[in-house]
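Hello,

Our lab assistant flagged a job as stuck in the queue for most of the afternoon. It eventually completed. Since we weren't sure the result was trustworthy after the delay, we are filing this so someone can double-check. Below is the sequence as submitted and the structure that was eventually returned. Let us know if re-running is recommended.
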Amino acid sequence: MCGIAAIVKSEATNCPASVLDQIRDEVAHRGPDGQGRQFFAKGLPLSGTAVPSTSAWDVALGHRRLSILDLTPAGQQPMVYCGRFWIVYNGEV
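-- returned structure --
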């Protein structure tokens, strides 16, 4: 079982981006083989691996990976399709 985390901020919320990592890592026992995260601002993904500032993002997705079937880097999450659609999930497509 993988570990999944997500945050959707309201305009009134002042939430540091590091909270996503804290939530995601609470379930590290469910996904010890890898981790990932992606931040979004106004529906667009923020590039780079640096944690954005508190106000620079609206939605965040986090994932802890348990490699059972796909042991390659292609199984890293969050996953993107056509550069537009993002997903974190526990299972197989």
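-- support follow-up --
The delay was a queue issue, not a problem with the job. The result is valid. Residues 83 and 92 are 20 Å apart (CA to CA). The chain has one helix and six strands.
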